[in-house]
Amino acid sequence: MIYIKLIWSYLKIGLFGFGGGYAMLALIEREIVGPGWITEQTFTDIVAISQMTPGPIGINSATYIGYVAPGQYSQAFSSPVFGILGSLICTLVVIIPSFMLVAYTSHLIHRHRDSDVVKGIFTGLRPVVVGLIASAALLLMNSANFGDTGYQIVWSIILCVASFAMVYWLKWHPILIICLAGVAGWLIY
């Protein structure tokens, strides 16, 4: 049944999704798009919506995927009731492992924060998290985000580079960049 499969997938995501939402994207994509529960285009849309709504991207995407996956899996589950049930299940399953791990390890880390072992673990995790975030960036550089035609690809690259420059070098506020990107997308596309 789809709910058992969603529970298993989000249990893995909740247990092994280190480094935050962006670092989890490759794992989420593999677990959710791989079985065919949603398309790559839908996944890209979920990432965009999850970034614009309040809350962590992992939880927002779990809620949305839990809602749409049962209907994509079978027409028998296309009712909103099954979607709401899927949303609740996925959201809880992705939160509970992380909550339990943090509750358990925070006491140990606090007690042993000066330990060379704990310092070594965190020193080893930092570059891995950066690598996972970089893989998320590469994962999102697909035709669903940049378009299929030369016109779309060129404008998408210009918008991507301009957004990066405005945030990184000019230090413009990200909300302003999002608003400007929406207006630019409306005008260009």
Which terms would index this structure?
mainly alpha, 0% strand, flat, 9 helices, 189 residues, 80% helix
Give a verbal description of the structure:
- This protein has 189 residues and is an all-alpha fold.
- It has helices at residues 2-16, 21-32, 40-52, 57-73, 80-111, 116-139, 143-146, 150-168, 174-188.
- 80% of the residues lie in helices and 0% in strands.
- Helix 1 (2-16) packs antiparallel against helix 2, helix 1 runs antiparallel to helix 4 and helix 8 runs antiparallel to helix 9.
- The N and C termini lie far apart (40 Å).
Secondary structure topology:
Elements: H1 2-16, H2 21-32, H3 40-52, H4 57-73, H5 80-111, H6 116-139, H7 143-146, H8 150-168, H9 174-188
